[in-house]
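User: Here's a chain of 262 residues. Predict its fold as tokens.
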Amino acid sequence: MVTPPWRGDAGPRVTALLAPNPGPMTLDGTNTWVLGDARSDEVVVVDPGPLDEAHLQAVLDHAAGLGARVALTLLTHHHADHTEAAQRWAAITGAPVRGAGRGEPLRDGEQLEVGGVRLTVLATPGHTSDSVSFHLPDDDVLLTGDMVLGRGTSVVTHPDGDVGAYLDSLDRMAGLGVAVIAPGHGPVVDDPAALLAYYRDHRLERLRQVQAALDDGAADAGDEDAVVEAVVQRVYADVPRDVWPAARQTVKAQLAYLRATP
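Assistant: Prediction complete.
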């Protein structure tokens, strides 16, 4: 199967600049999203990404090319591949930074309007406890951070992430019925309904596989780390080993969910 090409826009007012941090967990790299209307002299930047001066300059140059200044920076969650540059970015732009424990806390349901673009903040925990998404109703776009990726599936970190919250957040996203998902990594998603349904089905299937592995003897492998390793070897045998560290995190979160679910 051919990997779909990464492309850097989710609409005329929603553009991504790709950070130079590709890897097994970051795919092509982190998408730094720039939101703004051509008729405005302000833009919003979502997730400035890693501390890479050339990348930050590219984002500044893009804003300047629009005849705009950065008026606000938003963070989808606290992981460093999205936030490492936040302090430097704030110093360069003078713009306030909000989210992931920085600046004024984002509130679920809060509505913002900057650069002619309306955004609604949605608390979508699961990947991390502080994960938020941004709904752009006029553009029919949802920025999802790492809750939903443009390729593959996301990780439920442990102990910060939560499988139950993840499933609830997927349902909340699906209820919006948006036309496009602008993810934190990977290409734009043009069929969000299908992808969100797949994400939910995939997670439920993984839970069934983990339970089956436990029933088949993984539960008796030894201490918690040994149990996790036994589950990973059975359930994620077809997954490249360079993402097994992430698989271990997700298995820990899945075990916690199964133990807490009657």
